[in-house]
């Protein structure tokens, strides 16, 4: 029961990490574009 309750939390953490990686990648590309 407890592991089932934690599962959505783990999913959202991994989704947030993917989003953050995408953001960093886009930020680097924008920096190269404007420099």
From TrEMBL:
<protein>
    <submittedName>
        <fullName>Uncharacterized protein</fullName>
    </submittedName>
</protein>
């Amino acid at each position: 029961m407890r592991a089932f309750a934690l599962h959505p939390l783990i999913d959202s953490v991994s989704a947030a990490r993917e989003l953050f990686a995408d953001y960093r990648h886009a930020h680097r590309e924008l920096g190269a574009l404007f420099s």
